[in-house]
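It would be a great kindness if you could assist me with a short task in structural biology. The matter concerns a single protein, recorded as an amino acid sequence and a row of C-alpha cells. The record follows directly beneath this note:
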Amino acid sequence: MLEMRPICERCEAPLPADGSAQICSYECTFCSDCAIAMDHRCPNCSGELVPRPRRTP
C-alpha cells in the first residue's frame, strides 16, 4: 500500500491525503512547489516526481 506521508520532505509543508503532492517510485514525497523547484527530480534517488494519487478521508 502507498504510504501517504503527511509533510513535504523538503519544506515540511503539510500534505493532506486529499491534497496535492508529488512522489517518486520510492515514495519520497514533496509539495508541488518544491517539485517544481527541483524540476520534478527526487533529490534522494534522482527519480521522476509524479502526482501522488489522492485519498479521500
Remarks:
- The domain at 1-57 is CATH 3.30.40 (Herpes Virus-1).
- The longest strand covers residues 22-23.
- The first helix runs from residue 32 to 37.
- The chain has one domain: 1-57.
